[in-house]
Write the structure tokens for this entry.
Amino acid sequence: MSNPTDRSVDEGPRRQTLGQRRRDRIDALAQAGAVDDEPGVSLLRAAWMRLRRNPVFLIGAGITIAFVVLAIIAPWIAPWDVTARPLLDEVRPQTNPVPGPQPGHPLGGDDRGRDLLSRLIVGSRQTLIVGVFATLFGLIGGLVLGTLAGAIGGGVDSLVMRVVDVMLSIPSLLLAFTIASLARNPSQWTLIVSIAIIQVPIFARLLRGSMLAQRSSDHVLAARSLGVRPRAIVFRHMLPNSVGPVIVQATLSLAVAIIDAAALSFLGLGNPDQRQPEWGQMLSLAQRYIAEAPHLAFYPAGCIIVVALGFTLMGESLREALDPKSRR
Amino acid sequence: MSRRRTVATWTTAVLTAATLASCADSQRDEDGGSGGGDDGTFVFGAAGAPEMFDPFYATDGETFRVTRQMFEGLLGIEPGSAEVVPELATKWEPNDDGTEWTFTLRDDVTFHDGEPFNAEAVCYNFERMFDQNEAGQVAGEYWGYVMGAFANDPDNSLYQGCEATDEFEAVVTISGPTSGFPTMLTLESLSMQSPKALEEGDANGIAAEGEGFSFPAYADAPVGTGPFTFGEYDEANGTINLERNDDYWGDAAKTSELVFRVIPDEATRRQELEAGSINGYDLPNPVDWAGLEEDGNTVEVRDPFNILYLGLNPEANPQLKDLKVRQALYHALNREQLVQSQLPEGAAVATQFMPDTVSGYNAGIEPYAYDPDEAKRLLAEAGAEGMTLDFAYPTEVSRPYMPDPEKIYDSLRTDLEAVGIKVKVSTASWNGGYLDNVTAGKYDAYILGWTGDYDSPYNFIGTFFGNLKENDFGTEVMPWGKQLADDLKTADAVVDDGERGAAFEKINQQIMEEYLPGLPISHSPPALVVGPGVDGVTPSPLTAEEFDTVTVGGE
Amino acid sequence: MLRFVVRRLLQMCGVVLVLSMLLFAWLRSLPGGPVSAILGERQTPERRAALEAALGLDQPLWVQYQKFMQRVLQGEFGVSTKVLPGEDALDVFLTRLPATIELAVLALLLAVVIGIPLGYFAAKRAGSAVDTMTVIFSLIGVAVPVFFTAFLLKYSFAVEWNLLPVSGRQSTGLDATRVTGLFVLDGILTREWDAAWDAMKHLILPALALATIPFAVIFRITRASVLDVLDEDYVRTAEAKGLSTRIIRARHVLRNAMLPVLTTIGLQAGGLLAGAVLTETVFSYRGVGEALYTSFREKDYAVLQVLILAAAVIYVLINLLVDIAYAVIDPRIRTR
């Protein structure tokens, strides 16, 4: 558990500026990699011992694994092709806008006669793609910036961190709206990129913090005194130790990415092509039929909520397990 | 903190609040509630904010809906049809060659500000519309569209002059006969406005600023002759209030107040209607029609006055120059299924580029049948099997003729792919490049449509093919392109109504059978809905409803 | 101190100027735009060119920017084309701002009223099943997209049960007097109680939906902070002295735990704006968020530009105020 009163004594005047809370959370996580053990192994093992008996983690991990497995095998278990329109001839905008459940279509169809169950199943894959790529791009961007700042230090460090802190202090969803709305042509990739951009500063600060914390740790000092080149220290010793915190943050980021993607879709900034299903897009389109066919909205909404909750529960319990303070 | 200081702070706060409160007196009318509501208020849910209130500079339906209640033109439209009827003019007569039109005016009309309506006022209005500054020439879009030019370029203008020959008789001179005149005087933009108010409000003082126009004072205080007068526009709350004109020359409006409330979201408009806080709204989603009726509302379906088509551009894709290819594409489309599964009842498969309510519609044209085998055969004959088509649709838009473009596109694309055509999917948002790309000829094929302005065949097919150099169908590169454009102009200049209709019918037949420059898909009926207890709304195919006949009963 | 403030203000002007240039150039490089929005189906290359010429959009970018800056110096920020057509973009922002302030304040209030007691309660029973449940509950709050919460609230309370208004800020036909633009306050000031109550009713659902964002944060901070304080020596001492639990809670635990909570609340404002875009859109609530949504959807670049710049200015100003406040409170910074 973080202890704000403690730190304010350590660090002298503590300035509460915008984005402070987000920065504190990231910094606390970054500390987790700064242990004097050999790279990560025993740390992760210790964490695992604690997690094994944590119900919150188990629920979260269960949901996450189920979701990922579903996303991977989706095309093979979906009963229908998601672009086929087997129920189209039943669709009448006034009398029967959304065909109901029937043999062969347990959840019925959507507004253009496509099998709803199949679209939900395959939608998991598209949703995972958005989440994973947004997080991955964010991580890569953060890795470059954070490593630059942490490894070079000095002027580069302060410049990069200044930009990062400004970005962190702007509400992330608002930043994503702005970026997505300024895109030339909305597509799945503009959606992914605008969410990735808001993840960059988080990972940058995390990695830099993790490296700074390790700079004075025993194994880095030892390596340096043995004459290992700085670049090798960064890549062989520092980065591997940052893996734990990065995994935690990535898990949390995935949840945020999925929710933000749904929000952007709702505002019409998502993928305009509605052939390949994605939950956020399905949810935003279904709102038009909320009075006649609320289930069309509730299924994808339920999926988003459960999956986002799964990632969040897993991430939060991982964070607690890795937090040095909770290990006292 | 010392107690004394606390007390001081509080005293200051209380004093400040009191001062604020004392200078913030209620400005309500003393006669209670909303301005003398004897016969109730009709509240209509609008989809967007009006641009301003001078119809001459207006371009969108949301503005026209409001101004239509306050203004009238020389000619009117029979409620419920597209037929031209007398309004401020009781009769009109052309001279022999159709260039001089004598309008006899009503003698019992005054503007809302008490100014008399007479021939001088009519000519003042025409001259005002004609004589625009640079910004006004662009903003006065409808005048430019129907008249061709403004005072700085009189040679290209249809309008040549107006003369008050008597107190209630005005003569308008035009450069040559056309099917559009005088029908165009039914356009909301060409309504009659008070000369005095125009003058005082500097009505022509429009300026272009950056991305938009800044409008003169008049545009916020419009004065017409109609059954309602302007009340106020509450921008913070998004409501526009109109009040009954008690001195109206015709039957006075049946409700004492008319309110337009801006609710951008369609689903929210429906919910507001169900909650009873509005009495009606435009363009309900067809999905909701049945549910709305069940709940005691009335869905008024208008006759379709629009066309959705799949445009083709042979300039972008030379394979489309072959008539067989174009016919093959047409046979490939299952338009019946599209209309049934996506468009509301009353929608129809199109056989030509105009709905059957327009004069010049040719009832004898055989529709192209849905026949994928024929399509494949024609493609093979033309040597275009497996051709690639760059086919585009717009996003972020909903039009009366295409409620959901992506969905329509998905159907058309599936049909085309079924006969072996490779579709390259292109898209852009409506305001974000789609229209630019269409007019610039960047797509091989695209979906687009048109809603008629008034009952004139030229307003449909003339708009599509009349301008040889600049049209979306690339007819310039086709051998018959010039012929078609010339035929259209010739037919448009025929003075006799019957002869003109026959000429357009012939052109329609040629277009569909010999040229096929694009593929007409469907006509879709837009609806409007009113709540329980509301009577007297007559749906208009031109979406030109007048609300003065509306009554709002108790619930 | 003064020099510090002046320097920061100058810095801010620089940032905003650069941002305005980038934004200006970028928006005008996008395809389509206001000209397409105005012309619609009637667009032909000829008409488009004419309209562009009339609006000065055919001139080189730097000339356009120069003209834009000239107008800005005269207090004109460009004319809105869709959000409030014909109005100056800055006026649009100023008309919309009170609505969002009202919404954000109520949302924050709701989040505090629910979040703090709940956080305190959870902390007192830390580790128990009740605690786990509340924590999971707060996480569910995070996992449900705000617009969906808003949609559910609207659908159940306004549509199905007809308890509260569906959308907007005030019913029509109230003839309310406008003073500050904050409708509830206006009603109170002018003693038009029905108007105030009506505006309040319109606020409840959107504010409730929006409150879920700060609620989760406030709940977690309160819980963590109370846990920390419970662990402090002075609480233990108080307990050892045999003070009654009530006094300990009121004097020691709550008062000390509230400090970090209060600062957090103050810093939630920014996050609310992002949520406001979603909730205001769902409820057709005429605030800044809805204007932002409409402006980018309808390519109302003048308004979009002003909204983004205004957000930047407000953000920098808040940051500056926070800095000044800290300098005043903490003498160690002042001397630097």
